[in-house]
Write a structure and sequence with these properties.
- It is a single chain.
- With 398 residues, the protein is an alpha/beta fold.
- It contains 16 helices and 14 strands.
- The chain folds into two domains: 175 residues, Alpha-Beta Complex (DHBP synthase); 152 residues, Rossmann fold (3-Layer(aba) Sandwich), CATH 3.40.50.
- Helix content is 38%, strand content 21%.
- The strands form two sheets. Strands 5-4-3-6-2-1-7 form a seven-stranded mixed sheet, sandwiched between helices. A seven-stranded mixed sheet has the order 8-9-10-12-11-13-14, sandwiched between helices.
- The relative contact order is 0.12.
Length: 398
């Protein structure tokens, strides 16, 4: 049957017409840069105010040819920039700067660069003490606070790659030449101001792309509303259960995607229990919303989450594993969740969570959190340490 009168569809089932303007050139450049970095390509990052520029590549993608190309583009020796957390895993006494660089020896090979970036790569992960010692002997320098290298590391994070950048800096006299050459050889040029603006811009530019009724085993009266960011990134989904009254505080759950726990039933975490338990809790209350966020592995991505699991198998806990990879303990932000709630007409919520940070971040994003509702499930022998670490190190309330 063809529906010719869209007004006959349930309002929640009618796809929303995107009201935002077309993506800006700045947003398009960041989106393209993310794609290029994930393919192993190089990108030029420029700070026009400081008249400075660097050619970068994600360190985990380094090759012999890319090392040579960086030197050719800039005339300077490539360097690896790391977050303070990753440097701390290599060096016993890191400097306090948020981003630091390891000076590479002359004729460095790509394998060394990848080992610097990735603690699960090669001999270091196999317990080779000589390999770890070689890394710890590399000289560290704090990066100038011009924001150039810091923004390059942030750009690689946007690409869900390890927060480590192979880069070479252009001299002040060569910035314009590098900018021109980048166009000639097809390298994308990105401005630091656009990298800074990207997270807030991405959160504001979510649109309702589609909606449909989807009966669930624990909540038959459920509707799924998909939200697509206009930068072409991953979709978020709101599971609307029952008929929540938006004039009253709505029971909600912010749930970060977990392929291993939600789909495969992994026992290493409690994500699957929390997902299905939240649906049952909202159904029993007569209605509410579960916002399913594309934030795998506390927003470090599936591949990096599996790397963190590999480190946990060597004895570290979940927080230390993320930090040894160079990330913060939790990389998630909740502006997208707040925007989704606003578009659903929800301003006041009761939040199903054990994480006080979710409460404070959601409140800071403009959502009135009137109550935190406990959301606790029994542990098993595989996730006992994981849950204990969440309580001891990230303040979760069990």
């Amino acid at each position: 049957m063809f529906i010719t009168d869209m007004s006959k569809l349930d309002p929640i089932s009618r796809p929303a017409t995107p009201m935002a303007a077309a993506p800006s050139p700045a947003q398009i450049s960041i989106d393209r840069a993310i794609s290029d970095l994930r393919r192993g390509a190089m990108v030029i990052v420029r700070d026009t105010n400081q008249h400075s520029a660097i050619a970068i590549q994600a360190a985990e993608m380094a090759t012999h040819d890319s090392l040579r190309m960086l030197m050719r583009l800039t005339g300077s020796q490539p360097t690896v920039a790391l977050t303070r957390n990753r440097v701390a895993a290599i060096k016993p006494s890191p400097a306090p700067a948020s981003v630091q660089s390891l000076i590479l020896p002359m004729n460095t090979d790509a394998e060394l660069v990848r080992r610097i970036a990735d603690p699960t790569f090669g001999p270091e992960n196999d317990g080779d003490e000589n390999s770890g010692s070689a890394l710890s002997e590399l000289s560290v320098i704090p990066e100038p606070e011009d924001g150039l290298v810091q923004m390059a590391v942030q750009l690689v994070k946007f690409a869900r790659l390890l927060p480590a950048v192979l880069f070479a800096r252009a001299s002040s006299l060569d910035v314009e030449r590098l900018s021109t050459w980048s166009r000639d050889v097809g390298l994308l040029l990105v401005e630091t101001r656009d990298i800074r603006a990207f997270p807030a811009l991405r959160a504001r530019r979510l649109v309702q792309a589609a909606a449909a009724r989807v009966p669930l085993s624990d909540a038959e009266n459920a509707r799924l509303v998909a939200f697509r960011p206009l930068d072409g990134g991953e979709e978020h989904v709101a599971i609307v259960i029952g008929e929540p009254d938006t004039n009253e505080p709505v029971l909600i759950r912010l749930h970060s995607a977990c392929l291993t726990g939600d789909l495969l039933g992994s026992l290493r975490c409690d994500c699957g229990d929390q997902l299905r338990g939240a649906i049952r809790a909202i159904e029993s209350e007569g209605g509410g919303v579960l916002v399913y966020l594309a934030q795998e592995g506390r927003d470090i991505g599936l591949i990096n989450k599996l790397r963190a699991y590999a480190l946990q198998d060597l004895g570290v806990d979940t927080v230390d594993a993320n930090e040894q990879l160079g990330f913060d303990a939790d990389e998630r932000v909740y502006e997208p969740a707040a925007e989704i709630l606003r578009q659903l007409g929800i301003r006041s919520v009761r939040l199903l969570t054990n994480n006080p940070d979710k409460v404070s971040q959601l409140a800071a994003a403009g959502v009135n959190v009137v109550d935190r509702v406990a959301h606790v499930f029994p542990s098993n022998r595989h996730n006992e340490r994981y849950l204990r670490t969440k309580a001891d190190k990230t303040g979760h309330l069990f």
